[in-house]
Amino acid sequence: MSHTSLRDFLGQANRLIINPYSVTAAAPLEKGYFGDHSRRKDGAFLYRVVEIRHPIAAEFVYSGWWFRQTIDISGERVWGQISWLDLKKEAEFTLPESVDPARRPGRMEIDFTRGLRIRRFRIWIADELIYDEVA
Description:
10% of the residues lie in helices and 47% in strands. The protein is globular. The protein has one helix at residues 3-16, and strands spanning 32-34, 38-44, 47-52, 58-63, 68-73, 76-82, 90-94, 105-112, 118-125, 128-134. It contains one helix and ten strands; from the N terminus they run αββββββββββ. It is mainly β.
């Protein structure tokens, strides 16, 4: 075998080797609700209620009905947006003092399907992922 053909052979062999430990981006997400200290209490089209037990004790309510997106935490509005043309997929807010005296930041992210069903719904408090739902 000549030097050139050996290099070609090894190049082809390297392309055929598959790492069994590599993660594929095309892998489907496992469906369910993930969070050690939170749980989904209710949910419907563009609506979620999540009970949070840690790092705060609160009820998180997201509503996207009637062109209005809102987030309420323990009955206090912390974020709102009129969405005539498209729904916002991310929201940043500050926790109310009644729930968190330190008033830490929070964030919500939503991924939608084509029919505006919630495909993934995540909540962070102070950069800690506390709830992750995959529908």
